[in-house]
Amino acid sequence: MFPETRLRRLRQSAGIRKMLNAPLPGPEKFMWPTFVVDGEKRREEIASMPGQHRLSIDRLLAELAPIVDSGVGSVLLFGLADEPEKDFQGSEAFNPQGTVQRAIHAVKERFPELVVAADVCVCAYTDHGHCGPLAANGDVDNDAANAVLAKTAISFAEAGADIVAPSAMMDGQVAAIRAALDSKDWKNTILMSYSTKFASAMYGPFRDAEQSQPGKGDRKGYQASYGDLRTALRESELDEAEGADILMVKPSLFYLDVLAKLREQTELPLAAYNVSGEYAMLHATAERGWGDLREMVRESTAALSRAGADILISYWANRYAEFFG
Ligand code: PBG
Ligand code: ZN
Which among 98, 116, 165, 180 has most CB atoms closer than 10 A? Predict the structure, then answer.
């Protein structure tokens, strides 16, 4: 008790603070999500995500060189289709010669040590923008979606992905993908599930980047409700039972309680997806001169680690050296 106990003793100098503080996560903990497009020499700025681009494969390889040099350990690839390529079920997602499939192959060839993950979903490839084919009543047909997701995952495994990451929030998608991988002898392909993924208002900039906004309706019938924590936690619990290797909470900064709870309930590795809206939020604040970007990035990243994230899926990763070096 005061006056004997004085906690300021423990933070009185930079040296003492450094000695006591948990270190910020190293670059190997970061996974950089990025967007691949067809063609060559394409590098299109995403207006709502300053510092992020849609890249053709040649530019992606060029852009990755300094990022890999900075020690960043992994990437998460997203593809998108032009309007005429979109159909009712998102067939382009599982085209063995698709952009993401070719990108996976090219990245593994150039950077064999880099861990390559690919997002398994069809919303950027369906003409209606939902995460699976629609049933007659307009809802996503859960089991038909699983079949399409499994085909997509297989095509990524074949292309050489280390990790496939289903993000559609369909019931049974993890079991369906695991079974499909194992039946094709892709036993070593890691399955990272977007296990507790909320229907969030923070995906706006991403949908702008991906042109994956649902035409009609929203994703509240498949993505978790932020008002129902128990069911949201069961989503992760079930994915673990279905054979997921890595679990995830998404978004992350608005859901630190979920991350911390899940950390206590599972021994699986946990990823936190620091989503596009959370990224844009800090950028917008900094742009107005209302906060220092580097300080905000460091503080929010420390929060994610402290809450229990092992892997940080983060758009800050391509500037790791600048923010954390
Ligand atoms: C698609 C998908 C989304 C994100 C990752 N995969 C958007 C959505 O569910 O609508 C969001 C990522 C971000 O906002 O950074 N299934
Ligand atoms: Zn989707």
Answer: 165
